[in-house]
Amino acid sequence: MQSSRRNPRVNHDELVVVTVSGQIAHPVARANPYRIGYDGVPRVLPGTGGIVINKRIGDHCVGLAGDHIEPGVALHNNNREVIGPRDGPNNALITYACVGNRARVITGPAAGATGIVTGKHGGVNHVLVDFPVKILRTLQIGDRIQIESVGMGMRLIPHRKIALLNLSPALLWRWGITESDHAIQVPVTHLIPAGIMGSGLGKSSAWRGDYDIQLADSRARKKYRLDSLRFGDLVAITHADNRRGPLYQRGFVTVGIIVHGDSTVSGHGPGVTPLMTGPAHCLKVRQDMRANLAQIFNIRHPVIPQARRTFIERDPAHRYVNTVASPHLAFNTGGYVY
Predict the structure, then answer these.
(1) Which residue range forms the structural domain that includes residue 274?
(2) Count of domains in the chain?
(3) Which residue from 75, 120, 316, 331 has the least number of CB within 10 angstroms?
(4) What distance in Å separates the CA atoms of residue 253 and residue 276, rounded to the nearest whole number?
């Protein structure tokens, strides 16, 4: 076996760079402003879309007075096609964009400013982009942002059992991954059991969004330190296979990035966009609290990860009583330890 080395080998010469674009999406409200929490309490909270100025990658995503908060800028392509599906342009935007791609503002007062793609949010079908606060305050709803998409079709050489999804070469090379002949080792901040993954299950593709970590169970939340999650954290989901959509599969692991914030709604929580998936003996993970997109790209210093109560626990209206069906319930993490 050869010694470990950085910068895993990829099929770089085969990759194609394609520009895609979208407009900054306005938040969309439902007819009923209330969201019913898993504690039975109705709440009115900010949600998806728009420009989030005070929450960026590197900030806490748990305990916010918000629901599915998307840090930075949310993009949606509002064009309509005359051939194929009418939402084809947005389908292309959310498929082509990869985490770590360069984004550039091409209209409005902030034209010329550059940022970075931080993830994809399924369901609402947004691509998320981070910019400095000064730029976020200058941007306008409807401004167009263009992305140099590259990463589709990328594969590791010779690790053919590991699939790459939504991942740019720029992030792959900066991540701090080490490689041997038979496996790669990837830094992550948290290990998450597949048994607590929720909304997003049942999709046929992991290329167009994310799926959520349920945080309602306080024991699981504390056991896996999920109350310290941050936007931009690189995390590992054990016993999860995302090659053809989210699937519980023993012996597999999926590594992804935290893209949106926690939720009060049953089955929802912080969202994970998958970046790589494969057998655990080929795709090994190690804990490193520096494994956050903000730090990897030297964008800003992430906050120190600290345990935080969920918004439901902080809310005086909270009347949820945490019950556990069996005191013997446990999650198998496949032998991973910190």
Answers:
(1) 163-314
(2) 2
(3) 316
(4) 8
